[in-house]
Amino acid sequence: MSVGQGSGGVHAPPAGAQNAAGVTYTVVDESYFEARRLKRHARVWSLWALGVGAVISGHYSGWNLGLANGFGSMFFATVIIAVMYLGLTFSIAEMSPALPHTGGAYSFARTSMGPWAGYVTGIAENIEFVLTPAVIVFFIGSYLSGIFGTEPAYQPVYWIVCYAIFVGLNIVGVELSFKVTVTVTLLALACLVVFYVSVLVSGKYDFARWALNMGPGGVELPNGNGPFLPMGIGGIFATMPFAVWLFLAIEQLPLAAEESHDPQKDMPKGIIAGILTLIASAFCVIFLNTGIAPGATGYAKSTEPLLDGFRTLFGSDIAKILAAIAVIGLIASFHTIIFAFGRQIYSLSRAGYFPSFLSITHGQRKTPHVALITGALVGLLVMMVIWFSLGADAGGSVIGGTLLNMAVAGAMLAYFMQGMSYIVLKKKFAHLHRPYVSPFGVWGAITCMVIAAVTLYFQFTDPVFQTAVMGVAVYYAVMMAYFLVHGRHKLILSPEEEFAVSKGAAEYRSY
């Protein structure tokens, strides 16, 4: 079948002709999509695990860097960011079953606002999903270094080995990938529950002594009982990017739409159950982890806060055993977000926004192996550049924080665009069948957009991580130049594009 005709009889713009948005569609035959097929496997349980597993590592490491501004800043920032994610996830829960495409955020923006908006959103999410595993594997390396007592110079070895193993698992097949996701997610949550219960029964929890052991200017107070906001109101805004780490990547679920048996019913259930699980765990970890020694000032500099917490509770020897189990939490997110960047690169490539060879799937496995390998290599390259630029002896919190802020910057722009997509779809596509409707409606999307914009603004004003965020802006400029000069002339009517071109009139089809 020519790409010029959809299953609903809707015709694409003639090959070689530009439409009003200045993009050109290339005609391909059915063999193009035959080489890019996926396999359906996921149900509600798998989708819940995919969402929670993608985020859960943020409850092990990364969030704690926000404690540099005091516990009160971390608490209020978490409340604000949780509100943003409620607005985001409920909006996605409505959009995803209405547009059940692997493209996720890109397809929402493409349908509602055109190819340029789709590409802008796709690049933002690409930055987020390629860099987030890089942050996670950095913390995996930190945990393993703590367990085995290796020197910092060996960190890149851990990164390469982890990427090789989990990219390989994702290539082997979607069924194995989801089985691993469910297993490691349950183990990761179980480890956190063991930690939470251990803190509560240990007799070592003292909120005022440890969580409030920071004074103005970040000075450690030996007896605790310091101010709730040692850095003032401004500390809350500076902490918001780190609070994002407690929830970042839950929005990846729509990328599994074409591998879900019934995305219209299962996707809303999976994403809503996921965000509620994460909110409960997020507040447990910030209160219970910070309420034991070494407290806010100690955890603010840690690259393995859960391991430090286990050391406080059980001593170093037993803590190492528990920390080995705790690495599973980081692995859960690492594995699931590798799945995400593979599908995200695949969808943009299948539609022609990225070079089309990136979307070829494995002949037997039906997994996007080229996209998975490419995303891993890009993530590793960014890590190596930062590692050698800052030096192996640079503080782990600085290196990890640099990568984290780069990922969060991409996420904030993607969230802003998804909120806008929701609003436009509500107005321009009122006829679209919506199996689920968000109870927060347009106001939920607006709230998400405002908080995302404020977070991104304060990232640009942060002197410590400003260079990292500017690096994201430079990458964005390069990718936009690519699309202007080349990419916009190579678009293909993938399911996302066909649905958008027809303004929702074409019957949805997957490959």
UniProtKB/TrEMBL annotation:
Gene Ontology terms: cellular component: membrane
Keyword Cytoplasm among UniProt keywords: no
Family annotation (InterPro entries): AA-permease/SLC12A_dom, APC_superfamily
Highest taxon of the lineage: Bacteria
Broad class of where this protein is predominantly found: membrane
Listed transmembrane segments: 44-62, 74-95, 116-144, 156-174, 186-208, 228-250, 271-292, 321-341, 370-390, 402-425, 437-458, 464-485
Compartment(s): Membrane
Entry keyword set: Membrane, Transmembrane, Transmembrane helix
Record carries keyword Transmembrane helix: yes
Pfam families membership: AA_permease
Coiled-coil portions: none
GO terms classed as biological process: transmembrane transport
Membrane topology category: Multi-pass membrane protein
Residues annotated as domain Amino acid permease/ SLC12A: 70-484
Protein name: Amino acid permease
